C-alpha cells in the first residue's frame, strides 16, 4: 500500500505542477501566499506538508465548524478532503483535466499527500453553497439552470477519450458510483460487461425478468463511452449571489456509457419536477435507458 500511495501521490503532484494552479487561484491572500512558492512547497517533505494540512483541518473546525470525516473547510479560502488513495487520486486527476480543458468552474487542486490509510488533497474552495436552496427560493430559474448544465455537460462529453470500449474511473482503475455500490467495482473491458454487472445486482428472479422483458430496449443499443462526472447532484452544483458558481466532487468521474450522467442525476432526485424536467430536456434521447434504470432501482438498493 505504501508504494501504491507513493505512486498515487507523485502522479497527482506531476499533474499539479503541469497545470500551473496559480491561474485558478482567485482569493487574493491565498494567491499572495501560494503562487510564488508553489514549486518550493511541493518539494518539501510529505510529513511536514501533512502536518500543516492537519493544522489547517483543526483550524477549519474551530473557525467554520466541523465538516465531515472526509471534508473540511479551511482558512485562506482552502478546502481539504481525505479518502481512499485510489479514489482521491482519480478524482483529483479528473478535476485537473476538466480545469485544463473546459470553462467549467472547478476547484483548483493544490497538493496531494499520503495520510496513512487515506490520502489528503488540498484545493481551493469555490464561492457558494449547494444550488438546492436557490432553486427552491426561485433565485435560480429553470431556464438558467438548464442552459448552464447543458453547456457544462456538452463540454464534458466533447473531451477526448482514451479507450472507446473500456468503462472505468478517470485514470483507468475501478469505477465508483453510489448509484451502483458504496465501494469501488470493475473496471470493465466493454459496456456489455458493465451492463451485466448492473443486472447481477438484482435478485436472481428480478434480474432474469428484466433481461427478458425490458433490457433489450436499452442494452441492445450501441452506446458511446464518454467522459462523465458521475455524481450530478444538487450538493455538487454550487450557487453564489444568484449565479451557478461551480461543479465539485469529481471522485466518481470516469469513462461511462453516454447516458450515465442522466441516469445518475435522476437517480439522486427523481421526484422534483424542476430537476427531472431540466435533465430530461437535456437528454431526451435516453428515455429507454432511464426506463431500465428505474426498473433496476425498484429491486435493488446499493446501500
From TrEMBL:
Lineage: Eukaryota, Fungi, Dikarya, Basidiomycota, Agaricomycotina
Matches recorded under InterPro entries: AGP_Transferase, Aminoglycoside_PTrfase, Kinase-like_dom_sf
Domain Aminoglycoside phosphotransferase stretches: 98-283
One Pfam family from the record: APH
Protein name in UniProt: Aminoglycoside phosphotransferase domain-containing protein
Parts of the chain that traverse the membrane: none
Gene3D superfamilies: 3.90.1200.10
Amino acid at each position: 500500500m505504501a508504494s501504491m500511495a507513493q505512486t498515487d501521490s507523485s502522479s497527482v503532484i506531476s499533474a499539479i505542477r503541469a497545470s500551473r494552479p496559480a491561474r485558478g487561484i482567485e482569493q487574493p491572500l491565498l494567491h499572495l501566499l501560494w503562487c510564488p512558492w508553489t514549486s518550493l512547497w511541493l518539494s518539501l517533505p510529505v510529513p511536514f506538508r501533512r502536518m500543516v494540512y492537519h493544522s489547517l483541518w483543526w483550524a477549519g473546525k474551530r473557525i467554520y465548524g466541523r465538516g465531515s470525516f472526509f471534508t473540511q473547510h479551511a482558512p485562506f479560502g482552502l478546502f481539504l478532503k481525505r479518502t481512499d488513495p485510489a479514489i482521491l487520486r482519480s478524482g483529483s486527476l479528473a478535476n485537473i483535466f476538466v480545469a485544463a480543458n473546459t470553462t467549467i468552474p472547478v476547484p483548483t487542486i493544490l497538493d496531494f499527500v499520503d495520510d496513512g490509510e487515506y490520502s489528503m488533497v488540498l484545493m481551493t474552495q469555490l464561492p457558494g453553497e449547494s444550488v438546492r436552496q436557490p432553486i427552491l427560493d426561485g433565485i435560480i430559474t429553470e431556464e438558467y439552470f438548464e442552459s448552464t448544465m447543458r453547456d457544462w455537460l456538452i463540454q464534458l462529453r466533447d473531451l477526448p477519450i482514451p479507450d472507446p470500449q473500456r468503462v472505468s474511473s478517470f485514470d483507468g482503475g475501478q469505477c465508483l458510483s453510489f448509484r451502483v455500490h458504496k465501494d469501488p467495482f470493475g473496471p470493465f473491458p466493454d459496456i456489455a460487461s458493465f451492463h451485466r454487472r448492473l443486472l447481477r445486482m438484482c435478485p436472481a428472479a428480478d434480474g432474469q425478468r428484466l433481461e427478458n422483458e425490458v433490457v433489450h430496449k436499452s442494452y441492445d443499443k450501441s452506446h458511446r463511452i464518454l467522459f462523465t462526472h458521475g455524481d450530478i447532484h444538487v450538493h455538487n452544483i454550487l450557487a453564489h449571489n444568484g449565479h451557478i458558481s461551480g461543479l465539485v466532487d469529481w471522485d466518481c468521474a470516469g469513462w461511462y456509457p453516454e447516458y450515465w450522467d442522466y441516469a445518475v442525476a435522476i437517480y439522486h432526485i427523481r421526484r422534483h419536477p424542476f430537476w427531472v424536467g431540466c435533465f430530461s430536456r437535456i437528454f431526451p434521447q435516453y428515455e429507454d435507458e432511464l426506463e431500465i434504470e428505474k426498473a433496476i432501482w425498484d429491486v435493488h438498493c446499493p446501500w
